[in-house]
Amino acid sequence: MRVLLISTYELGHQPLNVARPAGALRDRGHDVRCLDLSIEPWDAELVTWADRVAFSVPMHTAMRVAREAITLVRDARPDLSIACFGLYGPVMADVADRALGGEADAALTGWIDGDDDDVVIHLGREAASGGARPARDLLPPIDQYARFAIHGEQRLAGYVEASHGCAHRCRHCPVPVVYDGRIRIVDLDAVIADTDQQVAAGARHLTFGDPDFLNGAHHSMRVVRALHERHPDLTFDCTVKVEHVLEHADLWPEIAASGCMFVVSAFESVDDATLARLDKGHTTADAGAAVELLRTHGIEVRPSWMPFTPWTTLGQIQALLDFVAEHDLVGNVDPVQYTIRLLLPEGSLLLGHPDLAPHLGEYDVKRSSYAWTSADPEMDALQAQLASLVESRLADGDDGVSIYEELRRACGLERLGLSVDAVTVAPRLTEPWFCCAEPTSEQLGVLIQSAM
Ligand code: SF4
């Protein structure tokens, strides 16, 4: 069977979610091609060539671009069967012939082999536990993807996952919609083998893309030890929730000594009532404590934020900007983070929350989210204003410090008089976008244009 696997966007790294099933399908004798629309132009000839097409949709933006690309496939080849797989696979059932979520690699293989099972969410352990080596050779090389940036230097970066899913159920998060509080461990040997091939391709830094790296702390530490022993100079970053940063305080000395350069952590808000509604499991004080704890081990936090929810007030936005300054995080926050607005995809655990009911609108198919309005309508206008400000300043090439100062002014706060030379930019990836955020019009436009 000639199989075309398409990735539309995977946060700037070489798409593991396509490479992994590509390896499995190739091992089974299929002729597999991959297309990454975040890097490569649309290729109509591949659509003509294919017997089956499957889109990887691991996040919201990927899903939105995939919806556009699927219309191209349907126009060219109405006869062609299309699958969508990944975290957002289940919400693609209206446009795909087969929608698959969770640990879907085996089900995807089955679909290509002609199996007519119609189960949507798969949580079997076999797919995550190892299997074929990801077929990274079928994708653009890693030097075309996001790099690790530190002290003005950029290094090639690889990407692996030690686990899938999450043991928690934060109400705004798409992960529990599919995994419902479960995690699936990726076999240690599989993580090592995939890391080895990326190091051989030039990677000097590794991103662990697990939704939360310390969900399975014992397994993650085995992975950290094994990789540090094999590749002592390899640095890495991972995503860890505030609660786990504090709960696993004893692990940070070893994690730091093994090469951890920064931790992404979903702080979301500095309003404790909002954090409770989202069931985040932390308070604003906890977030501050997490910053300090990690710093004692030389690890910087790159917080992700979701400032705009139906309950946001101007005072909360001001408090968030002040929190960033007070904790010396101006160089740690990508400006787009100050503009993120809550998404409510189908199945969101927030939909049943009584505090949301007065603000909830109709489902918007185009944006793949329920509409909602703020309790204070001026906050909807402020979000649009900040998003436009950040988008245009980034397009002009402005630095994060001056954008932060401009955001303070737009929110009615005094500027702090920070200069770009006085603020240290924390280690980071060159792709500034590490959560399931509503894409800016420019980001979405660029991706959709490439899909066309
Ligand atoms: S926000 Fe993070 S910790 Fe919460 S459910 Fe999602 S992945 Fe898990």
What does this entry look like structurally?
The protein has 452 residues and is an alpha/beta fold. It has two domains: 2-122, Rossmann fold, CATH 3.40.50; 147-430, pyruvate-formate lyase- activating enzyme (Alpha-Beta Horseshoe). The protein contains 15 helices and 17 strands. The protein has helices at 16-27, 44-49, 60-76, 105-112, 175-179, 188-200, 217-230, 242-247, 252-257, 272-277, 284-296, 314-326, 377-395, 400-410, 441-451, and strands at residues 2-7, 31-36, 52-56, 81-85, 98-102, 121-122, 147-150, 153-160, 163-165, 183-185, 205-208, 235-239, 260-268, 300-305, 360-364, 369-372, 428-429. A seven-stranded mixed sheet has the order 14-13-12-11-8-7-17. The longest helix is centred in the last third of the chain and has 19 residues, at 377-395. The model has no long low-confidence stretch (mean pLDDT 93). The structure holds iron/sulfur cluster. Residues 166, 168-170, 173, 175-176, 211-212, 241, 266 line the site of iron/sulfur cluster.
Largest sheet: 7 strands, mixed
Instruction: Enumerate the distinct ligands.
Output: iron/sulfur cluster
Low-confidence stretches: none
| Count of domains | 2
Kindly report the CATH topology of the largest domain: pyruvate-formate lyase- activating enzyme
Number of strands: 17
User: Approximately how much helix is present in the residues?
Assistant: 25-40%
Rounded mean pLDDT is 93
Radius of gyration: 21 Å
Number of helices: 15
Which structural category do the helix and sheet elements fall into? alpha/beta
Q: What's the name of the CATH homologous superfamily of the largest domain? A: tm_1862 like domain
CATH architecture of the largest domain: Alpha-Beta Horseshoe
End-to-end distance, in Å? 26 Å
Strand content: 15-25%
Tell me, briefly, the overall form. globular
**Strand order, biggest sheet?**
14-13-12-11-8-7-17
CATH uppermost class of the largest domain: Alpha Beta
